[in-house]
Structure formats: structure tokens, C-alpha cells
Design a protein that fits this description.
Elements lengths: L1 H7 L1 E8 L5 H11 L22 H14 L1 E6 L2 E6 L8 H8 L4 E7 L6 H13 L3 E6 L8 H12 L3 E3 L1 E4 L7 E4 L4 E4 L13 E3 L3 H8 L1 H16 L5 H5 L4 E5 L8 H10 L7 E6 L5 E6 L7 E9 L8 E9 L1 E2 L5 E3 L4 E3 L4 E5 L2 E4 L3 E2 L3 E6 L8 E3 L4 E3 L3 E3 L3 E7 L5 H14 L3 E5 L6 E4 L2 H15 L3 E5 L4 E7 L2 H10 L4 E4 L4 E5 L4 H8 L3 E4 L1 E3 L2
Parallel strand pairs: 1-3, 1-4, 4-5, 5-11, 6-11
Antiparallel strand pairs: 2-3, 7-8, 8-9, 9-10, 12-13, 12-24, 14-15, 14-23, 15-22, 16-21, 17-18, 17-23, 19-20, 19-22, 25-34, 26-28, 26-29, 27-28, 27-31, 30-32, 30-33, 31-32
This protein binds guanosine-5'-diphosphate.
Guanosine-5'-diphosphate (GDP) binds next to helix 2.
Length: 535
């Protein structure tokens, strides 16, 4: 019973946005209002480099900072809210996709002047694929921005789902008067200033229309009119549709002024779902695999490693594995097992993440994120249990879009290079391919910055200096076939194109966009996968 009560009061979500839309500001305010931090400005330090840069310091900062605060837990209105950070730079988008597999809902922040921007669009796609419920926050209403009806229209088009405005702005920019809360039928009056608390804002019921009209003039009447239009044109609130990822509630506000933020935090608690059930493979002793459903309140502990990150501390070469708990309860001293290797885990410390600090976990339930240090042996996508033979699927790896060949400068450092590549591959910092025909290792990335980070880390963490040379490959596809025989025939036909990745999955390396089509015509029974799910 307590398990059920505990999981029901958990909310695990991520903020998705385009750089500069206001994610950092909003994160900080959410932490501030939940009492998780005392001082405004405390999150600012974690701000990562937002713009394309090859400056090592920036990269280091980004990594270091994201270790410290990539998960933030706060309690709010008797709920436990877990906020997962998504890396800001587009070159690390793969990391972001994986973080999104660990949340139950997303908060989309858009800049009211810019609408839905490119990076948000990519993240939306991932949420859509998983039917993740999305709450929309339209930020920066204190600026000269676009018409709110226009913004709703764009959100509907981009998200391909109806919007349901919950708050509505009165004016904008210099004439921003506040927001009307459609549910409470009242207006919250805007006041600029970053030291305001939600309870400091004046609230006037809409029934006092004359008073509001006298105070806000035309802006108020215009707002009522456009609100009516919006209500007429948009969907009625339907909680079930939201939970199924088919409708998004929309809020307006100004993050930097703490305005409209509490409404969003309340929405996370009131609207977004607690941890749900997940499907998993159950592996019997005989090796037979069956599908099973894991419920968050199940007694047995299970979770998935969705992120592995090297510690910034150069004196400790350990890494932190982040586990999203799917079921059961974690307690200190519990025996844990990695399904893939069937090895027992004996983490020296298991931590939870409280905005600015890590703390030893006392207990953690489904929806929570725990982290433990590892010296290897744990990979992204690994399922951790207290004994059951479960394997969750669904952690995505995307076919890289750019490749480089690794050339070691000092051949005596081969062992270090191999260890470094293996670990960085396990961490998902980059994809590592070992050509079956031998020769230099290949690196595959989604963003250019990943190469620079890996080259830098090989040197500083593994003392292996490498040169990265252009590669003839432009893409890769993981391949499978119904029978080993068919796969074998394919391997024989393309011996120079075969490679194995860090998880030992077989891939076909392509040099042109036509490669896959031609190979497919020749071998119709081979399946080419642009995405690999950890199995
Ligand atoms: P991020 O890149 O999405 O994390 O964005 P930040 O939170 O760092 O915000 C980007 C810039 O927009 C910063 O200079 C913020 O101070 C500013 N900003 C954030 N929210 C608001 C807002 O509501 N109004 C105005 N005028 N500026 C804002």
C-alpha cells in the first residue's frame, strides 16, 4: 500500500526548449518555489555553453555542471517532483533523447516572440513517438511578442495536437497586465521583479469586470475577446487526452519575473501523470523470453540506466550511472544485479540528487532517479534489478550522421585507447565501431562537438592522444535477419563494410545514401535499422 501511495505522489518530467527560451530561468524558479533552493541565481552557475563553441573550458564546464545538477528533486504540495535536465547543445541531442525515455511528462517552454523553434521541434518528435504528455509554457510575455492566438495556432501545427489554454495573457510587453486563469475565472496582476513570490501577486475575480476595465483599459477587453476566440477554436480540457499525448494545456507567463510559474508547477502536480507501467522482457532460466508488464508499485526493484557520466573529479576515474526506478523501492545496502552480465553490483555509494547537492539515498521509489558510481561493467540501457531476470527495452541509439577514423599518436598507448573508447562508448558520449576487417577504430557522432569532446577526454582522462581523420563513411545501419544464414551471406558479400559497435551489435557502414537501397535490393531479407534499441 505504501508503495502505491509513494509512487502516486511522484512526478518525473523534463523541460524541453530551444536555447534561450528560458529553461534555466524557469528551472530555477521551480526550485525556488518548491523550497528546494533558497537563493535565486543558484542555478545560473550550471548554465552550459549555449552556442557552438570548441572551447575546452566550456565543454568541461558543461559536463561538470550537468553531472552536478542533471537531476533535481524537490518536494511540492506533498509530492515528490523529479526534474531531469536535458543537455542544451544540439550536438548532444542523443543524450537528450535518452533522458526523455526516463520521464513521464515534458514541459515545453517557448519564447513568445519566436514561437516553436528548430530544437524544440526535434524534441517534440521524440515526445510524440512515445506519446509523452506535454505541458506548454509560453514565456517572456513581458516583451513585445506575437499574438497569443497566433502562438496557439503554431503550437497546434507543430505538435500536431490541439491546445487547451488554461491561462490567457492580458496585453504584452509594456502593456502586459497579467494573466486570466480560465479555471478560477480570475486575473492575476503582473508586476515586474525577480524577487516576487507567487503569493505576492494580486488576484482579482473576473466578476469585477468594471474594476479590471478601469485598470487595464482596452487590453482587458481585447484579452477577453481573444480568449473567447481561443476557447471557441481550441479543445475543451480533456485530462485523458492529455495523458495520452493528444492535447496540450497552455500557460502564459514570464519566467524571469516569477510570473505564471506557480501555475505551471501546479499543473505538473495536478495534471501530469505519476510513474506508469512499463513493458519488459522476462527471461526465464531456460532462456525463454516472454513479455511482461512491470507496475510501479510492484514489490520487486527494477530500473534502467539511462545515462552514464564520467565524474569531473580527475582524481576519481569513476563514473556515475543514473537509474530511473521503474518499480519497487530502493533501500541502502540492497543487492543489485545487472541483467545483461548477471553480475552483482556493489555500489559503494548510492545517491539522490537534490538540486545543488548529492545525498545518500534513504529510500527511493518508482519515478525517482538514483545514481551510483561504477568503474565499468554498466552500460547505457542496462536493466538493474534486485534479482529478477528482466530486461527493459526502448533506450534509443541513433545511426550516426558523421564519422571519423581514430589514429593513435603514440602506438604504445593502444591499451589506454581501447579502454577509453570502450568506456566512452558505454557512456554514450560517442558511438564506437570496430571494423570486422581490422584497422583503425571508427567514431560515429550525431554532432561535431562530440568528436572534440572525445578527443579531449581521451587525452586528459586516458592519456591517449589521437588524431581524428576524415572517414569515407557517411552513415551506418544496424542489421538483422531472420536467420543467421542470411546474415552470414550478407557479411560475406560486404566484408569491408561490417563493423561491431560498443554493445557488440552488427552494423553496415555506408558511404552514400544509395548504399542501403542497393544492398536492400540485393538482400531483401536483411533489415536495416536506423535506430538501435538497447536489448
Ligand atoms: P535557456 O537557454 O533556455 O536556459 O534560457 P535562459 O533561462 O538562460 O534565458 C535566456 C535569456 O532570456 C536570459 O537572459 C533570461 O534572463 C531571459 N529571460 C528568461 N525568461 C524571461 C522572461 O520571462 N522575460 C524576459 N524579458 N526575459 C527572460
Amino acid at each position: 500500500m505504501t508503495y502505491e501511495k509513494e509512487t502516486r505522489r511522484r512526478r518525473t518530467f523534463a523541460i524541453i526548449s530551444h536555447p534561450d527560451a528560458g529553461k534555466t530561468t524557469l528551472t530555477e524558479k521551480l526550485l525556488l518555489f518548491s523550497g528546494a533552493i533558497q537563493i535565486a541565481g543558484a542555478v545560473k552557475g550550471r548554465k552550459a555553453s549555449r552556442h557552438a563553441t570548441s572551447d575546452w573550458m566550456e565543454i568541461e564546464k558543461q559536463r561538470g555542471i550537468s553531472v552536478a545538477s542533471s537531476v533535481m528533486q524537490m518536494s511540492y504540495r506533498d509530492h515528490v517532483v523529479n526534474l531531469l535536465d536535458t543537455p542544451g547543445h544540439k550536438d548532444f541531442s542523443e543524450d537528450t533523447y535518452r533522458v526523455l525515455t526516463a520521464v513521464d511528462s515534458a514541459l515545453m517552454v517557448i519564447d513568445a516572440a519566436n514561437g516553436v523553434e528548430s530544437q524544440t521541434r526535434r524534441l517534440i518528435e521524440v515526445c510524440r513517438q512515445r506519446d509523452t504528455p506535454i505541458i506548454t509554457f509560453v514565456n517572456k510575455m513581458d516583451r513585445e511578442v506575437r499574438d497569443p492566438l497566433d502562438i496557439l495556432d503554431e503550437v497546434e501545427r507543430e505538435l500536431k495536437m490541439p491546445c487547451c489554454p488554461i491561462t490567457w495573457p492580458v496585453g504584452q510587453g509594456k502593456s502586459f497586465g497579467g494573466i486570466i486563469n480560465m479555471q478560477t475565472q480570475s486575473m492575476t496582476v503582473f508586476q515586474a521583479g525577480s524577487d516576487k513570490r507567487p503569493q505576492d501577486f494580486e488576484v482579482i475575480p473576473l466578476s469585477e469586470g468594471d474594476k479590471l476595465r478601469a485598470r487595464f483599459g482596452r487590453a482587458f477587453d481585447d484579452a477577453l475577446e481573444s480568449m473567447e476566440l481561443a476557447q471557441g477554436a481550441s479543445a475543451e480540457w480533456d485530462h485523458q487526452a492529455f495523458l495520452e499525448g493528444k492535447l496540450t494545456p497552455v500557460f502564459f507567463g514570464s519566467g524571469v519575473n516569477n510570473f505564471g510559474v506557480m501555475e505551471v508547477l501546479d499543473a505538473v502536480v495536478d495534471m501530469s501523470p505519476p510513474p506508469g507501467k512499463r513493458t519488459s522482457r522476462l527471461i526465464a532460466k531456460s532462456g525463454d523470453v516472454t513479455e511482461t508488464t512491470i507496475h510501479p508499485e510492484d514489490k520487486a526493484f527494477s530500473g534502467v540506466v539511462f545515462k552514464v557520466q564520467a565524474n569531473m573529479d580527475a582524481n576519481h576515474r569513476d563514473r556515475i550511472a543514473f537509474v530511473r526506478i521503474a518499480s519497487g523501492k530502493y533501500m541502502p545496502g540492497m543487492k543489485l544485479k545487472v541483467q545483461r552480465t548477471t553480475k552483482e553490483l556493489r555500489p559503494t555509494s548510492v545517491v539522490t540528487f537534490m538540486s545543488q547537492r548529492r545525498e545518500a539515498v534513504e529510500e527511493a521509489f518508482a519515478g525517482d532517479i538514483i545514481g551510483f558510481t561504477t568503474h565499468g561493467g554498466v552500460q547505457l540501457g542496462d536493466t538493474i534489478t534486485d534479482g529478477a531476470n528482466l530486461q527493459f527495452t526502448g533506450l534509443p541509439f541513433f545511426a550516426p550522421e558523421m564519422f571519423a577514423t581514430v589514429v593513435l599518436k603514440n602506438p604504445l598507448r593502444t591499451k589506454q585507447l581501447q579502454q577509453g573508447l570502450m568506456q566512452l562508448g558505454e557512456e554514450g558520449a560517442i558511438q564506437v565501431f570496430k571494423p570486422d576487417a581490422g584497422g583503425n577504430m571508427l567514431l560515429g557522432a550525431v554532432g561535431q562537438l562530440q568528436f572534440e569532446v572525445v578527443q579531449h577526454r581521451l587525452k586528459t582522462e586516458y592519456d591517449a592522444e589521437v588524431r581524428l581523420e576524415p572517414s569515407q563513411y557517411t552513415s551506418a545501419r544496424w542489421i538483422s535477419a531472420e536467420t543467421p544464414d542470411e546474415l552470414r551471406k550478407f557479411e560475406i558479400a560486404y566484408p569491408l563494410r561490417m563493423a561491431h559497435d560498443a554493445a557488440n551489435a552488427l552494423a553496415y557502414m555506408c558511404t552514400s545514401p544509395y548504399d542501403v537501397r542497393l544492398a536492400q535490393e540485393r538482400f531483401p531479407k536483411i533489415t536495416f535499422h536506423p535506430l538501435r534499441e538497447h536489448a
